[in-house]
């Protein structure tokens, strides 16, 4: 495909990365992808992209490199080292890291990349798998205004609310706040569900009317079916939310902000993971409330 759009390398084709990269292909971008699972690389190729057999091969001709991996250690693993992005990307390339990692990792990455002439944005997202598929993600960005302006057309193929939040690391800070709000919101919904059920109320009717008032939320809209059907197929895994609650509690401690309710929910997420539910969707916080309330928990 020959066009004037920047050539894109995409590293990390998981639950989020696969549909997002495919949305870029649909928008006319030339996308070369690399990830650890060959079947995900094959999926990208089937969607009209190109597969690469290494990070170096994926990034060598790219104008824009997008990364979407689970956490800080994976970002560092793909960015640094002789086989990594910084050693193999061309000078002037723009690296957009859409992973959710610690703000400090993003600050360090931007600094190290600048020495190679590579520009960086941290651009974590909110909206989960559904938001990725529908290209309606909220994208919170940290970095320079000029780089944000350059990346904006591409980000518009992936999301709906795209905001530059400040310098490097700011996107990650806002994402951490997002994960705090989402976890506390899911926990509140889960407690309401168990309370309603134990009271013998029609749960579906109750959630409908609650969602139409001040208690309504995007979380309740997106997770209502999970609660009703006890369907915890992961859109966003407890394991990853556990990682994010660690990021937000640590970052808050560093700046001297108290998160009393967030700390409790972080422990509930940790306990759910300790009970073997880490691979389930974060709406499975319902299971911990069921256990605490003496409700039978489905296997």
TrEMBL record:
The keyword Oxidoreductase applies. Residues 7-166 form the 6-phosphogluconate dehydrogenase NADP-binding domain. InterPro entries: 6-PGluconate_DH-like_C_sf, 6PGD_dom2, 6PGDH_NADP-bd, HIBADH-like_NADP-bd, HIBADH-related, NAD(P)-bd_dom_sf, Tartro_sem_red. Transmembrane segments: none annotated. Its EC number is 1.1.1.60. It is an enzyme of class 1 (oxidoreductase). Residues 169-287 form the 3-hydroxyisobutyrate dehydrogenase-like NAD-binding domain. One of its GO terms (molecular function) is 2-hydroxy-3-oxopropionate reductase activity. Keywords: NAD, Oxidoreductase. Belongs to the HIBADH-related family. PANTHER family: 3-HYDROXYISOBUTYRATE DEHYDROGENASE-LIKE 1, MITOCHONDRIAL-RELATED. This is 2-hydroxy-3-oxopropionate reductase. It comes from Streptomyces laculatispora. The lineage of its organism: Bacteria, Bacillati, Actinomycetota, Actinomycetes, Kitasatosporales.
């Amino acid at each position: 495909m020959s066009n004037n759009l920047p050539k894109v390398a995409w590293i990390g084709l998981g639950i989020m990365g696969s549909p997002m990269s495919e949305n870029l292909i649909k928008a006319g971008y030339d996308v070369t992808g690399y990830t650890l699972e060959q079947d995900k690389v094959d999926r990208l190729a089937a969607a009209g992209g190109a597969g690469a057999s290494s990070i170096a091969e994926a990034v060598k001709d790219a104008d824009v490199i997008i990364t979407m991996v689970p956490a800080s250690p994976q970002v560092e693993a793909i960015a640094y080292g002789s086989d990594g992005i910084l050693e193999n990307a061309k000078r002037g390339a723009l690296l957009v890291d859409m992973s959710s990692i610690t703000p400090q990792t993003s600050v360090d990455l931007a600094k190290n990349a600048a020495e190679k002439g590579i520009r960086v944005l941290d651009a974590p997202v909110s909206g989960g798998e559904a938001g990725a598929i529908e290209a309606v993600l909220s994208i919170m960005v940290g970095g320079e205004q000029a780089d944000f302006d350059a990346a904006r057309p591409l980000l518009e193929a992936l999301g709906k609310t795209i905001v530059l939040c400040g310098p490097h690391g700011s996107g990650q800070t806002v994402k951490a706040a997002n994960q705090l709000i989402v976890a506390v919101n899911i926990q509140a919904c889960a407690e309401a569900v168990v309370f309603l059920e134990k009271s013998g109320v029609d749960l579906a009717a109750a959630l409908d009317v609650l969602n139409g008032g001040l208690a309504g939320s995007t979380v309740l809209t997106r997770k209502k079916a999970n609660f009703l059907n006890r369907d915890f197929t992961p859109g966003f895994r407890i394991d990853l939310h556990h990682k994010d609650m660690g990021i937000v509690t640590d970052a808050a401690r560093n700046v001297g902000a108290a998160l009393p309710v967030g700390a409790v929910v972080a422990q509930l997420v940790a306990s759910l993971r300790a009970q073997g539910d880490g691979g389930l969707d974060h709406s499975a916080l319902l299971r911990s409330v069921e256990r605490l309330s003496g409700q039978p928990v489905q296997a």
